[in-house]
Each structure stands twice: as structure tokens, then as C-alpha cells.
Design goal:
Length: 376
């Protein structure tokens, strides 16, 4: 995590209230972004407390209607619009037959804060990736039972998680019923108090009007060249931050530099026809690989080639080997050590490489004591 020229590491000016852990709290991530914004005076260029109400093309430019917190509206024309509204605010929930009459409570991981409300309950957690694993582990300390439903589990799955007395793994939910019961695809029927949807988010652009040229279909935003430019509107309209399962901040940085380089005329784009050909080929390749449409923006192992291509476009060096290896080790730990992946590591050599890289670029003043200890 972190921008290339501003590493996400503890700094001398930080006080003791800052979180130095490898997997810090969301407050620490916010503090890092605040540090970055102040360092590079980004906050001076942001119009805060302003809602973008509508964005639409007008005479080869872009009309932007906005409204501030006291209701004053602006109607402005811009040469280009870069959509960077994120995709972790509009929850995606599982579609369950019969859920309309099921009497229990439903929440999304977006709204989860503490386990206390689930005390002595029977809880179903849908999804077994990062948020599902974290929340189920958190809840199991107070809940009567926790049942994880995941489409990645075979349909017959029904097993108690090793080392746990009250956590079971299942396949997905088959149906919900008025008597409070949930039927799983493995045939098990359980009376449930609460369902927690750890099912991710949907891309949502309620302000954007492109006359149907850019759509969201099963969480695939498109057509987009390299996940950024819609060929019909390039370079005047672009998106930053759509891909997931990768080095997010590093990707934001490279995408932003590419958009800036294209808008300034320093880097050309292919013709609209060429871009559409590549987009069509990309969708066909993903389908042939067996990816559902909703995974169109999932990078995974494709992130290295994607980020290196982006870096080449803007004259940046390719992805550092230590950075790629760190991501790999993180995913491996999550898959095999879900209870301890945040606290136990076996990658001291990679951390040494990372800090020595930061030092060589004068991004830090000296190697911290824990890194010096690792070098012994």
C-alpha cells in the first residue's frame, strides 16, 4: 500500500497515537491520505462539501452541475472529467429466493462496527474473502453459531472450521423461509437470526449521463480501454480506480499519471476503433478464462502486466519485484493463515528490500531499528 514517492511507513514526525502495524486501522489509512494531501497541497485544490449532481457531454466538452452543503448550485463547463468516486459505498447483496418474507435481520459488511449486537445469535455470513473472514472471526466470540456461506465452496460442503467450536462452512444459500429458517445448497436447514452480507460493492455513477455509451452491466463498467477511457469519449472522460484485487494506491497513481499525460498531449491514445477492438478482445479473453462478467475489473495476477504497461506509458520504472512478492505473500497468508495473517509474517527479506529501496530514493532518512534488526 502507498504511493511510490510517499511510502506508507511510520515517520519521525508521527506521534505515538499513530498505528505502526503492517495492517493498520482505517483511521491510519485516512491519516496517511491526510499526510499526503498536506505534503503536496492536494487539499488546496479540492472543493469540499460539494455534491456532483450531474455530469453530461455538451458540445465536445463536459457540463458539471454541483451543489454545496448550503444548497448553492454551480453549472460549469470543463474540457475533461475524471471520475474518481470510488466503489466501496454502494453495497452489493446476495439474491436469495424467499428473502422478502424471511423475518430475520440483514446487514452489509459496510455497516459492521462491533460484534456485540450478535451476542447469542445464530448468524450466517455470506462471503469468505477478507471482510467475510474478518467479521466471522470477530462475531464467533459472542455468537451462538456462525455459518459461512460461500460460492467458492462445493455444493455439498458442511464442516466445522478447524479450531472452532461454533463456526461452520457451507456452500451458498438455496432459499429463505417465513419461519426464520435458511436452507443451504448442501441441504442443511438452520434457524437464523441475522444474515451478514460480505458480498462486496457495486459500481455506481448516478450523476453520470453518457446517453448509454458507458453502462454498468453485472458490475462491469464499459466499454473502457484499459479500465480507464471509454473509446467514444476519450480523452475527455476517464475513470480512475475501478480495478480491484491489486496494489490499489500504486494503481491509482499510475492511472492518474496516464490520464494527465494523455490530456496534456504528451502520450497519444489509439484511435477509437483500435481501442474498441482491444476492449472487445479483452472481454472475450476473460470469458474464455471462465471469469464471470462481474469480475471484469478484477486484476489478481494480471496486475503486474497491467501496472508495468501503465508505467511504461508514463515513463516510470516497472513494478518493483519486492512489491509484487509482498502482495503474493499477503494473499497466501490470507488463504492459509486467516486467523494470524495480520500478525505473523515470514517476509523479513522483502521488508529489508523495500526499506533499502526507499532509502536509496531518499524517501526516508534512515533505516528504522526493526529493519536493522532483520538484517543481522
Amino acid at each position: 500500500m502507498g504511493y511510490r514517492d510517499y511510502p506508507f511507513v511510520p515517520r519521525p514526525e508521527h506521534d505515538e497515537s499513530r498505528d505502526p502495524r503492517r495492517y493498520p486501522s482505517h483511521e491510519e489509512v485516512l491519516a496517511y491520505l491526510g499526510d499526503f494531501a498536506r505534503e503536496f497541497k492536494v487539499d488546496e485544490m479540492v472543493r469540499f462539501e460539494t455534491e456532483v449532481v450531474r455530469v453530461e457531454p455538451q458540445d465536445k466538452k463536459w457540463r458539471v452541475l454541483s451543489k454545496n452543503s448550503v444548497g448553492i448550485s454551480d453549472d460549469e463547463i470543463f474540457d475533461a472529467v475524471v471520475v474518481c468516486n470510488g466503489h466501496y459505498t454502494e453495497p452489493r447483496v446476495a439474491q436469495i429466493p424467499g428473502i422478502e418474507t424471511w423475518p430475520g435481520k440483514q446487514v452489509h459488511s459496510h455497516n459492521y462496527r462491533v460484534p456485540d449486537p450478535f451476542k447469542d445469535q445464530v448468524v450466517v455470513v455470506i462471503g469468505n474473502f477478507a471482510s467475510g473472514a474478518d467479521i466471522s472471526r470477530d462475531i464467533m466470540g459472542v455468537a451462538k453459531e456462525v455459518h459461512i456461506a460461500s460460492r467458492s465452496n462445493p455444493s455439498e460442503t458442511y464442516e466445522k472450521r478447524p479450531g472452532s467450536d461454533n463456526l461452520w462452512l457451507h456452500s451458498m444459500i438455496e432459499s429463505a423461509h417465513e419461519d426464520g429458517s435458511i436452507v443451504f445448497k448442501n441441504g442443511k436447514v438452520i434457524k437464523v437470526d441475522t444474515i451478514v452480507h460480505c458480498t462486496g460493492y457495486i459500481y455506481h455513477f448516478p450523476f453520470l449521463n453518457t446517453n448509454g455509451y458507458v453502462t454498468v452491466d453485472d458490475n462491469c463498467v464499459g466499454p473502457l480501454y484499459k479500465h480507464v477511457f471509454p473509446p467514444a469519449f476519450a480523452p475527455g472522460l476517464s475513470f480512475v480506480g475501478l480495478p480491484w484485487m491489486g496494489l490499489q494506491f500504486f494503481m491509482f497513481e499510475l492511472q492518474s499519471k496516464w490520464v494527465a499525460a494523455v490530456l496534456s498531449g504528451r502520450v497519444p491514445l489509439p484511435s477509437e476503433e483500435k481501442m474498441m477492438e482491444e476492449v472487445t478482445a479483452f472481454y472475450a479473453k476473460r470469458q474464455a478464462q471462465g471469469f464471470p462478467k462481474r469480475y471484469a475489473h478484477r486484476l489478481g495476477r494480471d496486475q503486474v502486466s497491467y501496472l508495468n504497461w501503465m508505467a511504461e506509458q508514463v515513463g516510470e520504472p516497472p513494478l518493483e519485484l519486492w512489491r509484487d512478492k509482498e502482495v503474493d505473500r499477503g494473499y497466501q497468508r490470507l488463504a492459509t493463515q486467516s486467523d494470524t495473517f495480520r500478525d505473523k509474517w515470514d517476509d523479513d527479506n522483502l521488508m529489508v528490500e523495500a526499506y533499502e529501496d526507499f532509502l536509496s530514493q531518499k524517501l526516508i532518512d534512515a533505516l528504522p531499528s526493526q529493519i536493522l534488526e532483520c538484517k543481522k
